[in-house]
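Memo to structure team: turn this sequence into structure tokens by end of day. - J.P.
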Amino acid sequence: MLHAHLTTLHVVALILQRFAAQPELIPRLLDGSGIAADEPGNGEARITRVQELQVCANALALRADLGLELGRSLHVSSYGLLGYAALSAATFGDAWRLLLQYPALLGTYFDLQLQVADGLAWVSAGDYRDAAELEVFNVEMCLASLKLIGDELLGRPLPLARAEFRHARPAYVARYELSFDCPLGFDAARNAFAFPPNC
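Reply from structure team:
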């Protein structure tokens, strides 16, 4: 699948917003990224994925559960024209298929798939190839955002049947229920969540 080499500063801006009450941390958050403190406000600017991941790594050192919170802030409208096209799709399934066709426009670090198996529709995020130390963070951000998108496409909370994660149960597991109000599985074979296909 095609993934973008450049991305917007949207995630970086969201990270800086999370630490807005501690402006003294901005240099630490941007350290090593080559991003100037005034750049995140520029909607036209583009950065490399390496720059984005550096800021994510810096932020993760300060707050372990940040991926979940960021994911809950990445609304369908965050994805621009693709998000709006998904909102206007004829069916819920068509909207998902459209979104997952264009991972570069979603800015994801994963191969995203929608599959129906055993009476459930599974949205999965696999084939991660970037900074290994950021995999859990990126899985949490990606799947929390996709769950939020599902809520917004449906116009109500997406009724999850199960969520599975390849990583071990984190110390902040209680924070998962804000995005994944369903049975959770850790040390699983995939990163995915499931819902009834007839939503």
